[in-house]
From TrEMBL:
Protein name per the record: Fructose-1,6-bisphosphatase class 1
Co-factor binding details: Binds 2 magnesium ions per subunit.
Subunit structure: Homotetramer.
Catalytic activity, reaction form: beta-D-fructose 1,6-bisphosphate + H2O = beta-D-fructose 6-phosphate + phosphate
EC number in record: 3.1.3.11
Cofactor: Mg(2+)
Chief location category: cytoplasm
GO biological process: fructose 1,6-bisphosphate metabolic process; fructose 6-phosphate metabolic process; fructose metabolic process; gluconeogenesis; sucrose biosynthetic process
Pathway: Carbohydrate biosynthesis
Keywords of the record: Carbohydrate metabolism, Cytoplasm, Hydrolase, Magnesium, Metal-binding
Binding site for substrate: 108-111, 199, 265
Amino acid sequence: MSRIALPQYLANASVAPDLQSVILGLAEVSADISKSLAKGALAGILGAAGAENVQGEDQKKLDVIANDMIKEALAALPNVRGLASEEEPDVVPCHTNGNFLVTFDPLDGSSNIDINSMVGTIFSVLPHTGETAVTEQDFLQPGRQQAAAGYVLYGPSVMLVISTGSGVAMFTLDQDSGNYLLTEADVAIPSETNEFSINASNQRHWAAPMQSYIADLIAGKDGPRGKNFNMRWVAAMVADVHRILCRGGLFTYPWDSRKPEQAGKLRLMYEANPMGFLVEQAGGEVWTPEGKILDIQPAHIHQRVPVILGAATEVALCVDYHQR
Ligand code: AHG
Ligand code: MN
Ligand code: MN
């Protein structure tokens, strides 16, 4: 069976050539990252880097390696105006004639690295034109304005999942040719589900509405929902959202009373927005208790946000518990 390769797919979808080059650049570097990941302990790249990122989180060696690889690849693309990363304190200006800004989480699910479990790379591409040197302010656009968003899941297969605003497509890396080949053209999330995803160990720290919503799911057939729910938690947003794009479900990383000023764990500009763009493009919903995540006006590049995403009916219900 002959499959459509990523460059052909982008051309068929009439994606602008300058945007194509950014997506292809990200695809290429992700294939290189997957090779490093596959070497694991043999290459001495597991374990801690011995430093903290701007968020005060301990960096893993692979967080730093993946960040440096993506940064170098993007900086080599003339269409990239600037970049922002989880692992970079400040935005990094690139080419003055570039039309795009890229934000990324180089390695999502870092706690999975040392246990040979799934991790990913998340990216968001924003438009930008203008004469002046790029600043953080230029990046602070609502997620709705993304020109493209996607992730690479480094699992048993390496998969690239992207949207340029007309649906979601999945590609699988062919290890023989090094090409990403189309394996799912029209991803759609069913509006109903009986599967949810949350780090339940934080339960006592959640706000009261989230406590009662999850309690009602866990009560199953005997509770107000009248049906049983299953739970899954990979501890890498990429992998949890990938499962939802494949078979449905609800994912949430809620507000937590331990750090009330932090508004959740996940970062708006390189986690919630790109994954949110994909989920909405697949027919799902993406909310914070106060409104749709893609409509949020970001205040800074490392801003955090509580996230509720996935099956449309279930997300609406969860949000309703918060707004009642
Ligand atoms: P990162 O590794 O990029 O810092 O992100 C990890 C995030 C997200 O991927 C995942 O959903 C969550 O942290 C896992 O958190 P827990 O430690 O609460 O499981
Ligand atoms: Mn992450
Ligand atoms: Mn990360």
